[in-house]
Amino acid sequence: MPLPVVLSGRTVRLEPLAPQHAAAIAAAGTEDRTTYAFTPVPHSLDAAEIYIERALAEQAAGRALPFAVVSTADGRLVGATRFLELDYWQGPLVWPSVPGVPHGDPLTAVPDAAEIGNTWLSPRAQGSGINTEAKLLMLRHAFEAWGVRRISMRADARNLRSRAAIERLGATCEGVRRAHSRGLDGAVRSTAFYSVLDEEWPAVRAVIEARLDRGARIDRPALYGTVAPRGPLVPA
Fold first, then answer.
1. pLDDT single digits (tens) 148-159
2. Bridge partners of 16?
């Protein structure tokens, strides 16, 4: 499974979520909560500790890689995000498929597909460009360090703010799955699904970097080295 990593940009640093973040997570989560209608956000120190414990359990099981979102301007934690739904396509072809199970050494395996989600930001960070740069850092790591074939994102279909933010990144809407699951408010929700494919990444990256250059007025982040293309999937 992927090892924890620090991803640093000009306005934001994504660092591995850890128990010592609990107090800061609680502080960020108890600011104005009017924008959290569709997103589970801890509301107390006890809730933050449980939130982190569950996220780290998902990480230990190889299903997620959670991050604390830190503003580089003042070192303040302003939210959280994570990679989840890690999927591995290498190795013998079996049917039915078993998602989330790496082939070979699980400590060195990297996913072929993943989702970016469980993202929330405190009101002070919303609209600041931090979310855009955080997505750039995560997408760049996924496509250029891991070499994934696809990154997915999703949002409650009613959450027009989150859907607009995803669409501004250049992700493609795959459609809305109706009556998909139970929403945070207890209602049955529909879910909008989005994705970026590896062949689309250069164009999407250019869109995001242009947005950062125009809107946040920051220098373009330094380029990371790219990884060699993966070989074909190993047949049975």
1. 999 999 999 999
2. 67
Task: Please say whether the beta carbons of 44 and 96 come within 8 A.
Answer: no
Q: Which of 118, 178, 103 is nearest to 152 (CA)?
A: 118
CA distance 72 to 77: 9
What is the band of 219 on the pLDDT scale with cuts at 50, 70, 90?
very low
Task: Tell me: cis bond preceding 106? Omega within 30 of 0 counts.
Answer: no
pLDDT of residue 235: 36
Q: Give the residue from 220, 193, 89, 98 showing the smallest Cα distance to 146.
A: 89
Q: Any idea what DSSP says for residue 81?
A: E
Q: Does residue 79 sit in helix, strand or coil?
A: strand
Contacts of 74 (CB under 8 A, 6+ apart): none
Euclidean distance between CA atoms 101 and 150, whole angstroms: 17
What is the radius of gyration, based on Cα positions, of the chain? Answer: 18
220 vs 143: CA distance, rounded Å: 18
pLDDT tens-digit profile of 53-101? 999 999 988 889 999 999 999 999 999 999 999 999 887 777 777 777 7
User: Residue 25 has which token pair?
Assistant: 């997570």
Question: Which alpha helices (H) appear in 65-200, and where do they start and end?
Answer: 130-140, 160-168
For 90, the 3-state DSSP assignment is coil
- Token duo for residue 75: 């070192």
